[in-house]
Amino acid sequence: MKLNQNYKILAASTSTVFGSGYLDYIIEDAVDFLQTDEILFVPYARPSGISYDEYTEAPRKAFGQKNISVKGIHEFSNPKDAIQNAKAIFVGGGNTFLLLKTLYELDVMETLKQVVADGIHYMGSSAGSNLTGMTVGTTNDMPIVYPPSFEALGFLPFNINPHYLDPDPDSTHKGETRETRIKEFHKFNSQPVLGLREGSWLEIENGKIELKGNHTARLFRANEEAVELNNGILDF
């Protein structure tokens, strides 16, 4: 799969790392990458128990400190128009299935694909990063709702597994590890899966995918041993 040269995507494993506030660890890079004074925030994956308005306040506060305004897509009467007129788009984390179901119900998946293909900057965190892959089949979330399809935006030639965790050698837990789950996925699916650890992210621009942040990423391919990928340009 050849990447669209117009893609400008930042896909982060998480919005918050231990010991810091919302987007603190990535805000400088995000501001440099997005190159805008206005962001459209998509809160449809909202964490349980809070409203769209409450969720939108988190990125509004973070980006507001950099003199960037944030509006929630729910504040507009027509979500398609909001996407088409956006200067940059940030899709927040939460439950991936809820996010995908809502986007399909609002009939904006194709609109999102088109504006990003045309060069609009897209930022995703967790569920919003899951959305950039081929499907959402490697999310860690429970399927609390049932979207009409697991097909995602397909910007990337692989799936992402955000919040990737390595096995803890000192744990007494006998259940499946994250790596085991991804290998199970590959019994029925062929696309590669990138395990993206906390504090790391991908930047996609000019047809290239770059791994950034504090950690390596773990790449899984069907019927092959997993490999560690260092920071820098990734070859797919």
Write a compact overview of the structure shown.
By secondary structure, the chain is α/β, with parallel strands linked by helices. It has helices at residues 27-34, 52-64, 79-84, 96-105, 109-117, 127-130, 178-185; strands at residues 8-12, 38-42, 69-72, 88-91, 121-125, 159-162, 193-196, 200-205, 208-213, 217-220, 227-229, 232-234.
Tally of individual domains: 1
Architecture, CATH level 2? 3-Layer(aba) Sandwich
Helix fraction, binned, reads: 10-25%
The proportion of strand residues reads 15-25%
- For the secondary structure, the number of strands is 12
Beginning-to-end CA distance, first to last residue = 8 Å
CATH topology: Rossmann fold
Largest pleated sheet: 8 strands, mixed
Strand order of the largest sheet: 3-2-4-5-1-8-9-12
Query: CATH homologous superfamily - what is it?
Result: Class I glutamine amidotransferase (GATase) domain
H/I helix tally: 7
Question: What's the CATH class, please?
Answer: Alpha Beta
C-alpha Rg, in Å?
A: 17 Å
**Mean pLDDT reading:** 95
Topology pattern, helix = H, strand = E: EHEHEHEHHEHEHEEEEEE
